[in-house]
Write a structure and sequence with these properties.
The protein has about 100 residues and is mainly alpha-helical. The protein has a domain of about 45 residues. Helices cover about 90% and strands about 0% of the residues. It has four helices and no strands.
């Protein structure tokens, strides 16, 4: 019985880690887009340094945000609340 519980704990951790990656990617990709435009605007060393700095900052923001969500509510709970369609659920209940 203990091995069965260990399997489910490991499976739950893997699912939460996938959710963590999904939450991390949002600020990271926003930072990459901003860094791209800064690097394209300033084609010198300044643009490269500024873009690198912005990417590092947004990596930190992504890690902090995803870890905070994992500890507070769990990543899957957070993502399921974001992706739920409560308006459609209410319409189907009223029929």
């Amino acid at each position: 019985m203990k091995h069965k519980l260990d399997f489910f704990k490991g499976f739950e951790w893997i699912i939460e880690a996938i959710g963590w990656i999904r939450i991390f990617l949002s600020p990271f990709l926003i930072g990459c887009v901003i860094a791209y435009f800064i690097n394209a605007t300033f084609s010198s060393d300044f643009g490269l340094v500024a873009a690198s700095f912005i990417i590092v900052v947004f990596i930190g923001i992504g890690i902090g945000f995803a870890t905070k969500i994992w500890r507070k509510t769990g990543t899957i709970t957070f993502l399921s609340r974001l992706e739920s369609t409560t308006d459609l659920d209410e319409k189907s209940k009223s029929k």
